[in-house]
Every structure is written in structure tokens, then in C-alpha cells.
Amino acid sequence: MKVSFPHMYSATIDRVAVSRARIEAGQRPVLQGGPPPEFQGDEVSWTPEHLLMAALGLCLFTTFEAFAARDKLTVVSWRDTAKGELDRTASGLAFKSFVIEIDVTVAAGEAGKAQEVFDKAKKNCIISRALTPAPEVVLRIASAPE
Known about the structure:
The protein has 146 residues and is α+β, with helices and mostly antiparallel strands.
């Protein structure tokens, strides 16, 4: 299937209280957003920082899944955890590093193919390519028992 470009994406933020918002994007479930506890937020609202980490992890996952389907790789499981370190810099607050740890299990005998598929996913993930500095990736590939 040929995909036409460009694509447009949007999300709407509505203020619901001081530093609290409702995040909407079409028919998707509504999210509650706000600052993290470090900036007088709470532990339950989605924060810009957490959404960025989720976007990084989800982008690598969905890009990997797309290449896995194309290359007929049998994916048994995937779990990733993305972390970012925010700090003061000369130009203000900024992320100084990103690390994403990925555990993927594939069918027996497909670990080599999984690495090749992941290399394509990493190269084509639009979120990781947009981040500075580039995320460090810790990839662990396991084979499912036969």
C-alpha cells in the first residue's frame, strides 16, 4: 500500500484547572495532563516529559513492528523503558540524555533477523531522529523456546 505525504497530526489542550489540562486527539482516549511533581505537579497526570518518553518508546516499537511484518519476523514480546535526564544547561533547561532499554523476544532462530529489523527501525523512527542528543539504545534480543 502506497502512503501519500505529507501527514498532519494534531492534539488539543484545554485548561481544566491551574496547571492542569485535558489532552484530546480525535477519537483517542482523553488524557489528563500537567507538570511533573518537580514543577509542582502530581504523580498521576501525564506530563510533557513522560509523554516524550512514551513517544520515543512507542515510535521505536511501531516502527519495529512495521519492519518485522514486512520482513516476516515473528515477534513474541516487546517491552521498552525510555528515560530522559533533564538538567540545567547554558541555554536553559534541556534534556541532556535519553536512554531506551528494549527487551524483545522473537521466534527461535530469528535473533539475527531481529537485529537487522531493529537497525532499520532505529534508522527510521521519526521521534528518535528528532531528539537531541540522540537516544542511547540498549537492545536485548532473546529467542523463544522451540
